[in-house]
Write a structure and sequence with these properties.
The protein is an alpha+beta fold. Helices cover 39% and strands 18% of the residues. The chain has ten helices and seven strands. The longest helix is centred in the last third of the chain and has 25 residues, at 271-295.
Length: 319
């Protein structure tokens, strides 16, 4: 894919745009003069911008979907004190992308990929249980898994939607767990290992295809099932890996969403699984709110309504 030349934060009144962006949302509406127009929200790593298509709205809308990469032609304008794009042409970019292309359209995770990698390996190096050490040694020998684990987001729309988001989320959950464990009596090595592996299935669930999206396997099986399958692959390389430890790690993966309606066939049934579940949920929600507030503020204090969380969010004033 050709290198991007214009980023969202560079668009001003009368800026001529012919470049590639990611679609955050779109909709076709009826205007005041009874004509149809399309509203789109476009993004890259620097932020997002509203766009309006005033002609051929239905025709152009049928050619792409949310989370697609699209080539946009248009011109910057100012409406109600905000810069928008007056879009004259918008077309889906076909073909699969490579992971490095995504750095132009998503921000890097807050803690940076390099820092998160260092924290990941530090957590692994602190493991003492020999079988878990062997498990992560097996993972280190799988660059096909680790390359994606270090770069993919944790999701495509709700939380940690950033390059390296999956790694950052997994490390954050593990670090929080280490702080909680002394108050719970849970096994530290098993809990930390479960935190680092609970979303490993997302390396197969997500793909790079015109942007980060769900793979066919991801849609058919989901990251919980895929995570158990990856764990089985890794453990199969380890001689005499204890059955009980395999069972507990599998249980942590399949129960980390907490409820069947959220994608877990089993509820957490041990302290280690409970810690992973609640801290996974906490970290995901906090980052989801932060990402929402980054680009969806009505004013300096209140965010716009968050559909998934069914509320608005308040930003405390600086003192």
């Amino acid at each position: 894919m050709p290198a991007k030349r214009i980023f969202v934060n560079e668009i001003q009144r009368d800026t001529i745009v012919n470049d590639v962006f990611m679609v955050v949302r779109k909709g076709v509406y009826l205007g005041k003069n009874n004509t149809r127009y399309m509203a789109v929200r476009l993004r890259d790593k620097t932020g997002s911008i509203e766009g309006r298509v005033w002609e051929r709205a239905d025709e152009l809308s049928s050619g792409f979907e949310r989370n697609d990469l699209v080539r946009v032609e248009g011109k910057g304008r100012v409406f109600q004190d905000a810069v928008q794009l007056n879009v004259t042409q918008i077309q889906k970019v076909e073909g699969e992308m490579i992971l490095s292309d995504m750095t132009a359209f998503y921000p890097e995770c807050e803690s940076s990929i390099q820092s998160s990698k260092e924290q990941f390996f530090a957590l692994v190096d602190q493991l003492k249980e020999p079988n878990l050490v062997s498990l992560f040694d097996a993972l280190k020998k799988r660059p096909d898994i680790l390359e994606k684990f270090f770069v993919l987001p944790a999701g495509v729309g709700i939380h940690h939607v950033s390059v390296g988001g999956l790694l950052e989320h997994s490390v954050s959950v593990a670090k929080m767990a280490k702080s909680v464990i002394p108050f719970t009596g849970a096994n530290e090595d098993i809990t930390v290992a479960g935190c680092l592996l609970h979303d490993i299935g997302k390396t197969e669930e997500l793909t790079v295809k015109g942007g980060f999206a769900y793979s066919d396997r991801g849609q058919l099986l989901g990251h919980v099932t895929l995570g158990v399958m990856i764990l089985d692959q890794l453990i199969s390389e380890i001689k005499e890996f204890p059955t009980y430890l395999n069972d507990i790690l599998q249980h942590i993966i399949i129960s980390h969403h907490g409820e069947a309606e959220w994608g877990s066939p089993k509820r957490p049934m041990c302290a280690e699984a409970l810690i992973v579940h609640y801290l996974d949920n906490l970290d995901a929600k906090i980052m989801g709110v932060k990402e929402h507030m980054r680009e969806n503020m009505e004013d300096d204090t209140w965010s716009q309504y968050h559909r998934a969380y069914e509320t608005r969010f308040y930003r405390l004033p600086e003192r």
